[in-house]
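ingest -> fold -> write
write: protein_1
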Amino acid sequence: MTTPPAIDDRFAHWPRWPARLLLAAVLLILTAAALVPIAAGKQESQTVGFVEAMAGGQAAKDAQRPRDDDLALYDRVIERIGKGENYYAVAADEHRQAHYPLRPGVAVRLPTLAYLAVALGDSGKGAEVLVPGVLAAALVLLVAVVLAWWKRLGEEPGGAQFQRIGTALVFMGASLGLNRYYFVLHELWAGMLIALSLALHRPGRKWLAALLVAALALAIREHVLPYVLLMGALALWRRDWKEGAAWAGLVALFGLYLTWHLGQVAQHVLPSDPLGPSWLELRGLSGWLSNVVLSSNLRFLPHFVAGPLVMLMVLGWAGWKSPLGTTATLLYLGYGLAFMIAGRPDNFYWGAVIAPAMFVGLAFAPQAVGSLLKAALPG
């Protein structure tokens, strides 16, 4: 029986003064995270569905509660294309009737998820009708995510010591993928697929499966593009030219798909269609925390607890000195910065793109905090 590798702790050998500066910054950020407001704007009522789904009795409640505007629009689109109508003609008509913008073109979702829903048997009736095909797909994806992370943690340096708690945290983060009320929400599927892709990736060894899963996620929601760019950049940094070229090729293919999509939308835009409001809101730390907390199971907790937990997730990832730790740290810091700059309060559900696997960072947080304290304070 082989001995598991020792934990490679990023903060263990830091010089005292840099460690003290980092510790002070961490304390300041944790305090700010406990104090800043967490809000979802005018669509804050949408968060109720996530809580109810995990509290039990969701099937009956779904049949009673009104359908959220965004989700009702997606339902109608799925219902109509299932009857043979053109996706872009339907999307333009439904956007116009719901007073949703058609400009810029990215305001209209990519058609991938709608056609997949139809293929899986969704008739566009919303959460009031259980669709076995969609539910089976969600269940298979959840099981794949959990198993992939169990295996990945077991293979990482020192990861076997965190295998159980890390996998449990992944399940906690990914369990929202079974909330049928939100099965038509693009970010929910994209986030689950990112979590699976990250777990399947083996730097310099195995990356094709991760690439293919990421390709599906990107075809569903363009918000996956930063993840793909990061994976490609890290491959080039490692001088893995083959993998880097593969990720670059995916970006190029997506560019063609998005260009085609925007062209199709443009054909249905009328001069009278208004331009949608800007997504540049500069919400700062509140935007980052709101997106992650309100699109995850952290919403069960008081805001002054949930906010610091998001920061501790990132600190935990940053404290794990491994290729996976570095990738996840850059990933979550990058999306966090994006959420601080872009996205209106009612775009909080964007956080579902990164939330599922982010939870794993809590498994490493105690070690990261302990080693940082040890490096910063006198012995």
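write: protein_2
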Amino acid sequence: MEKSQILETIRRMAATNDGKAPGSQKFESETGATKADWYPKYWLRWGDAIREAGCAPNTFTKSYDDEFLIQKYVQLTRELGRFPIEGDLIVKRRVDKTFPNRESFRRLGTKSERAAKIIEYCSAREGFEDVIPLVNEPIDARLPELDGTSDKPAAGYVYLLKHGSRREYKIGRTYNPMRREGEIAVELPLPLDPIHVIKTDDPVGI
């Protein structure tokens, strides 16, 4: 898209949304224009595009305390029946604007650190016995890292993902399928559906 087209589209989308300018992900999902269409050719930040279009920059979500974030994690864990990945946080935010955005949860640390805090929270309270096994599972199944400390080849994975309801699939290789799924989900407007994962010591060959 040309710069003038992007600016006009931002204005049009804002006009149909009570004056609220679209975020970069919403803009991409509705227009098909990716970040590469505007960065760094026209702007270094999406907020700069919003300002040039004559719209007020979107305000950021307020800061939440750790307990509130943990409660939201517990809620989503129960809904999914498993420990959420990054993509789950994004999808939940899209359908429920009261749910904190993905950036808010970073204050809880890495995935394993978040899990540890949730287990500690649930263990100190009654009524959360169903959550602890769901959180423990990804910790127990944590994949080996490529640290060079083992003589055995590190286990890798070949995965097949489906993109939303479309007939679009992605095949790839990774050493951490859960993390990779979350990374891909950030880039796509529709939810991902994991189809199959193969564990192998030769992901490149497979």
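write: annotation protein_2
The two ends are 38 Å apart (CA to CA).
The chain is about 40% helix and 10% strand.
pipeline exit 0
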